[in-house]
Design brief:
The chain has about 300 residues and is an alpha/beta fold. It folds into 2 domains: about 260 residues, Spore Coat Polysaccharide Biosynthesis Protein SpsA, Chain A (Alpha-Beta Complex), CATH 3.90.550.10; about 35 residues, no CATH class. The chain is built from 12 helices and 13 strands. The strands form 3 sheets. The chain has a 9-stranded mixed beta sheet. A hairpin with a 2-residue loop joins strand 2 and strand 3. The longest helix is centred in the C-terminal third of the chain and has 17 residues. The structure holds 1-O-phosphono-alpha-D-glucopyranose.
Length: about 300
């Protein structure tokens, strides 16, 4: 009998960043709690994990992130008030975020970078493959990206990334991959560089914030020194895995062509809010009418 590769059951959501790009909003509010329409950004990410069957979610938090914990917990006072008013629709909404998944927390004491945040998850994850979802990256809920990545992990073992072609002007904002084709939409990653200098990028394929990782990454992370920005970079550990598959590789990737929003960027955040609002059944129709008129008057001006 052949051993089936262990199934991915756990998701890790790093949420310890300072959110400096959204000051002053993030002075006293975690950036993960900024709403996309009326739902905090991090809830979309936890919903995505739950929809992919990952019912165990570990959020890596830090100082000032208590609102995240409260959001995924019950709020009995609020629930009682809504129930007393007979506002069952809102009662469901308030309960839903507490029922999405078993959400756990670990604190990253010092913000030493994404690689260090992922390493904080090691005791919870143990020796099994796991997913990492970055809250700054929103993927269209209609796109089954994580499913495709988990299938690739079952096929090849090792770790699986998601790449998107962002063009030469944007690539310096991301981890960048050198790849070899495998088949349509699937590549093998041969090298990685975190936020390459202009002209130094091996491709225009950017690492977007979804990862399915082999637990071997923890040993590599523990030995990875500070990289770009003086931080422990997840990209650097994945580079070791990609270049030397004996350390726990290989690394493959899905080339993602669906919609995604890098909500860590103010302009993209606004676009995400507008597009999610347009798609909503409740506020969508009136908002789309207003948007058409607004765009027409802006064009005329
Ligand atoms: C992180 C990663 C980077 C990746 C990006 C995706 O960067 O380090 O490799 O491309 O997320 O959003 P950050 O956005 O935290 O600077």
């Amino acid at each position: 009998m052949t051993d089936l590769p262990p199934r991915v059951r756990k998701a890790v959501v790093p949420a310890a960043g300072l959110g400096t790009r959204f000051l002053p909003a993030t002075k006293a509010t975690p950036k993960e709690m900024l709403p996309i329409v009326d739902k905090p950004a991090i809830q979309y990410v936890v919903e995505e994990a739950a929809a992919a069957g990952l019912a165990d979610v570990l959020v890596v938090t830090g100082r000032g992130k208590r609102a995240v914990e409260d959001h995924f917990d019950r709020n009995t006072e609020l629930e009682a008030a809504l129930a007393a008013r007979g506002d069952l629709a809102r009662l469901d909404l308030v309960r839903a975020s507490a029922d999405l998944a078993a959400v756990h927390y670990v604190r990253q004491g010092v913000p030493r970078g994404l690689g260090d945040a992922v390493l904080c998850a090691a005791p919870h994850v143990g020796d099994e493959p796991f997913a990492v979802l970055l809250g700054d990256d929103l993927v269209d809920p209609a796109e089954p990206l994580l499913d495709a990545m988990m299938r690739l992990r079952e096929e090849f073992g090792g770790s699986v990334l998601a790449l998107a072609d962002v063009g030469p002007r944007e690539i310096g904002r991301y981890g960048c991959a050198a790849v070899e084709p495998v088949r349509d939409g699937v590549v093998r990653v041969t090298d990685l560089v975190e936020k390459p200098e202009p002209g130094r990028a091996p491709s225009t394929l950017a690492v977007i914030g979804r990862y399915v990782l082999d637990p071997a990454v923890f040993d590599v992370l523990a030995k990875t020194g500070p990289g770009r920005g003086g931080e422990i970079q997840l990209t650097d550990a994945l580079r070791t895995l990609a270049r030397d598959p004996g350390t726990g590789g290989p690394v493959h990737a899905v080339v993602f062509t669906g919609r995604r929003y890098d909500t860590g960027d103010c302009g993209e955040y606004l676009r995400a809010v507008v597009q999610f609002a347009c798609r909503r059944d409740d506020v969508g129709p009136a908002f789309r009418r207003w948007l058409r008129e607004f765009a027409a008057s802006a064009a005329a001006a």
